[in-house]
Specification:
Helix content: 25-40%
Order of helices and strands: HEHHEEEEEEHH
Structural class: alpha+beta
Distance between the termini: 72 Å
Shape: elongated
Strand order of the largest sheet: 1-7-6-5-4-3-2
Radius of gyration: 20 Å
Length: about 170
């Protein structure tokens, strides 16, 4: 029994050592996309459109979401509209009305390939809102998988989505 405990301790120590080396290596990278726009509409109107996933097919040129905008909810996300569209399942981590929504996805275990998408609303005044959409990738597979991740062209897609949301919020009665 003592040998088993010693072996287990050595395996855990080796894992911690390898993880520590990776953490400080060039392979531990964080990559992200960011798109921000100012919308001539109050934050509550922008929030209502952003969290009404069922309306996305009517205005959103880039993203589809199946599910409900509730903390803890699993949602199915599809990015893109053509043969390069990518779908995945994520869990909504944060929902703060008129302020922010965040979802995350992990591949297998934390630290392998993690992605976090954020939608942040900043009320500039009673009738103007800044929407910032960002996505952050981290984990050991970010570097080798980056070309596949970037194929979807998230930065362009997020700008298109933000502009479509802006147009819809500014023209809606």
């Amino acid at each position: 029994m003592r040998k088993v405990i010693i072996r287990l301790a050595l395996v855990l120590l080796m894992f911690a050592l390898v993880y520590g080396i990776w953490w400080f290596s060039p392979y531990h990278q964080v990559r992200s996309f960011l798109a921000s726009t100012e919308i001539n509409a109050p934050a509550d109107r922008v929030w209502q459109l952003l969290t009404d996933f069922n309306s996305y097919p009517y205005w959103n040129p880039y993203m589809r979401v199946e599910g409900q905008a509730r903390q803890g909810e699993k949602v199915r996300i599809t990015l893109g509209q053509d043969s390069n569209a990518v779908s995945y399942t994520a869990r909504i981590r944060v929902v703060q009305a008129n302020r922010q929504m965040r979802w995350t996805r992990r591949v297998v275990l934390p630290g392998i390939l993690d992605r976090e998408q954020r939608f942040e609303l900043e009320a500039l005044d009673a009738t103007h809102t800044r929407l910032t959409q960002s996505e952050r990738f981290s984990g050991i597979l970010v570097v080798p998988m980056w070309k596949n991740i970037a194929l979807v062209d998230n930065a362009r897609g997020y700008r298109e989505m933000n502009n479509a949301l802006k147009a819809r919020a500014e023209t809606q009665d």
